[in-house]
Amino acid sequence: MIINFLIFLLWGVIYGLTYPLRILSDVSLSSDFTSAISTANNYIAGLNYILPLPTLITIIGLFLVIEAFILLYKLINWLIRKIPTIN
Fold first, then answer.
1. Rounded CA separation 36/3 (Å)
2. What are the tens digits of pLDDT across the range 6-43?
3. Model pTM?
């Protein structure tokens, strides 16, 4: 019951904060923009035979995760070296 109240309270806050955006009229994309996205999608789909896009995205994501852990490791070591009694 408390969790239900907290969720309702959070929903109310978000609803109140987004009220100015919700009173604006709905916007639709122009047909030129939609056709440009469709054309670009066709070009990218043709490249999928040469270089599979989901595999490429997975490899790049894995690379970024590994680099983030290396950066975190270096940051933690740097902070440890800044503590006078441990150095």
1. 46
2. 999 999 999 999 998 888 887 787 889 889 999 988 88
3. 0.43
CA 78, 79, 84, 87 torsion-angle sign: negative
Q: Is 73 within 8 Å of 80 (Cβ atoms)?
A: no
Question: Could you say which DSSP state residue 53 is in?
Answer: H
What is the CA 61 to chain-centroid distance, rounded?
A: 12
Helix (H, G, I), strand (E, B) or coil at 85: coil
Residue type, 51: L
DSSP 10-42: HHHHHHHHTHHHHTSPP----HHHHHHHHHHHH
